[in-house]
């Protein structure tokens, strides 16, 4: 994820009575990896400003372009060029078994000076597939991508492939979501909030490494533990 994207900001967003956060996509160009890591948190903050949660079904690309595992790398490249896509679902004996991307073609074929017409895509595909239900939320999808270190998920319902959702699909709708947030916030006339700062290190609650530690009382906790603490506080209230 060495690409960069340009976003405008800042936007101040009050999340709930318990906590207030600032949604601040930095002005200028920032790396997609930075966006990828922080997308789940941004989407979580956006939630209260949307009439209903955005689901994977609303964002996914469908139908999915497929090839048999015995197909060659040059066939995959031709299909990508024809349909202007960056990934293809791979099937073997009728079952979805993996996914091959432009990056796979570059790193596993071109960079190694292999002949594309002699390389089967089952040799270079990513497997096993990571799937998600079409009714899952956009936040769930990005969190799953983050945990797995991937940028695409196959959307599957009862074992049948329904579509594919990628980080780029999410980024395509982000400007529209930001516009909604900005409009809602302007209408609410809320106060300007102080920007949160983050640290890197091990979470005092779960012990896992995080580059988004935030201080709550006398502990530094990761995003997931912060949400759990907030849920607990709301339940007690």
Which characteristics define this entry?
about 240 residues, alpha+beta, CBS-domain, three-stranded mixed β-sheet, 13 strands, about 40% helix, elongated
What does it look like?
- With 237 residues, the chain is an alpha+beta fold.
- Among the domains are: 57-169, Roll (CBS-domain); 197-237, no CATH class.
- Helix content is 38%, strand content 25%.
- The chain contains 8 helices and 13 strands.
- It has helices at 32-46, 56-59, 73-83, 102-110, 121-124, 138-148, 167-188, 223-236; strands at residues 4-7, 11-13, 21-23, 28-31, 66-68, 87-92, 95-101, 131-132, 152-157, 160-166, 199-202, 209-216, 219-221.
- The strands form 5 sheets. Strands 5-6-7 form a 3-stranded mixed β-sheet. The protein has a 3-stranded mixed β-sheet with strand order 8-9-10. A 3-stranded antiparallel β-sheet has the order 11-12-13.
- Strand 8, helix 6 (138-148) and strand 9 form a beta-alpha-beta unit.
- Helix 1 packs antiparallel against helix 6.
- The protein starts with a strand and ends with a helix.
- Mean pLDDT is 75; it is low at 1-32 and 191-195.
Report the CATH topology name of the domain at 57-169. Answer: CBS-domain
Structural class: alpha+beta
Number of strands: 13
User: End-to-end span in angstroms?
Assistant: 42 Å
> Architecture of the domain at 57-169, CATH level 2?
Roll
CATH class of the domain at 57-169, anyone? Alpha Beta
Shape: elongated
Bin the strand percentage. 25-35%
- Main β-sheet: number of strands, strand sense, barrel status? 3 strands, mixed
Helix content: 25-40%
What's the multimeric state? single chain
How are the strands of the biggest sheet laid out side by side?
5-6-7
């Amino acid at each position: 994820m060495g690409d960069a994207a340009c976003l405008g900001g800042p936007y101040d967003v009050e999340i709930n009575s318990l906590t207030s956060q600032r949604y601040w996509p930095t002005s200028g160009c920032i790396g997609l990896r930075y966006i990828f890591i922080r997308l789940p948190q941004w989407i979580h903050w956006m939630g209260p400003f949307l009439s209903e949660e955005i689901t994977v079904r609303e964002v996914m690309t469908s139908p999915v372009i497929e090839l048999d595992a015995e197909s060659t790398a040059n066939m995959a490249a031709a299909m990508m060029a024809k349909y202007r896509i960056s990934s293809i679902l791979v099937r073997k004996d009728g079952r979805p078994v993996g996914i091959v991307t432009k990056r796979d073609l570059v790193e596993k074929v071109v960079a190694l000076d292999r002949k594309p017409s002699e390389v089967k895509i089952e040799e270079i595909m990513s497997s096993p597939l990571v799937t998600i239900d079409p009714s899952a939320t956009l936040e769930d999808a990005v969190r799953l991508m983050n945990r797995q270190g991937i940028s695409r998920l196959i959307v599957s319902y009862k074992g049948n492939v329904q579509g594919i959702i990628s980080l780029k699909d999410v980024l395509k709708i982000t400007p529209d979501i930001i516009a909604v947030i900005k409009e809602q916030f302007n209408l609410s006339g809320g106060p300007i909030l102080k920007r949160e700062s983050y640290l890197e290190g091990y979470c005092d609650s779960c012990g896992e490494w995080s580059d988004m530690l935030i201080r709550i009382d006398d502990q530094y906790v990761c995003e997931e533990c912060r949400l759990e603490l907030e849920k607990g506080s709301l339940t007690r209230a």
